[in-house]
Amino acid sequence: MLDIPLNHLHRPAKVSEDAAWLLVLMHGVGSNEQDLFGLAPYIPENFHVLSLRAPYRMGPNANAWFEFSVNADGSRTIHEPQESASRALIQQTVDAAARQLGVPAARVIVGGFSQGGIMALSVLLTRPETVAGAMALHSRLLPEILPHIAPAEAFAGKQLWVSQGLQDGVIPPPNGHFIRQQVQDLPLALSYHEFEGAHEIRQAELHGLIEWLERLGLEEVA
C-alpha cells in the first residue's frame, strides 16, 4: 500500500520493478479518482497506474485542484494559492510514489483531463527533472505558470502529449494552440493532436494516447 499525501487508486504494473513505469492521472473539475482510473484496463501493463483525488471538495464525490471564475471576456481567474498548494501536493505525491515503487524519474509520466491536464502540464514545465513527460487532454496552460517555466535545457528528452477536441466548448482548440506555441522552442518531443469530439475522450483519442504510451514504455532509460 502506498503512503502518499493524496487519496488515490493504484493498479500495479505487471512487470519487474526495474522495468516498470509510473503513470499518474488527475481528473477534471467536479470529479474524483474513479474517473480516469477507468482508463487503467487500456494502459500498457508495464505501467503502474495511479489515479489521484484533488484536495478541494466541491460536493459528494466532486473535487477540484483549484477554484476559478470565468470573466466577462471569457478569460479565467484562478485561485492561485489553491493551485500552488495542489501543485506542491501533486509533486510530493509523485515523488513519494515513484520512490516507494522503485521507479526513476526517467520513467514517470504525469497526465490528466481538463483541470487535471492543466496540473500535469504545470508539473512538467516547472519541475521537469522529476518526470519523463506529461499528457494534457483537453487542457490549457495557465498564464500564471509562464514565469516559472524551467530553463530550456532542462527539457532535453522530455515528452509531451497534447490533445484537444475540435468541438470542445469548455476548453476550445485555441488553448491547445497556445500550449504548442509556448513549448515550441523547448527541446522536448511534442505530440499534438486534435480529434473530433467535445469535452470528452473518444475512441480515436484513447487509441492514439495508448500507442504513445506503448512507444514510451519500450524506450531504454538513460
Describe, in plain words, how this protein is organized in 3D.
It is built from 5 helices and 11 strands, in the order ββαβββββαβαββαβα. The chain has 222 residues and is α/β, with parallel strands linked by helices. A hairpin with a 5-residue loop joins strand 6 and strand 7. The protein starts with 7 loop residues before the first strand and ends in a 5-residue tail after the last helix. The mean pLDDT is 95.
Brief characterization of the structure:
With 222 residues, the protein is an alpha/beta fold.
On the 0 to 100 scale, the average pLDDT is 95
Instruction: Estimate percent helicity.
Output: 25-40%
User: What distance lies between the first and last C-alpha atoms, to the nearest angstrom?
Assistant: 28 Å
Q: What is the molecular shape?
A: globular
Low-pLDDT windows of residues: none
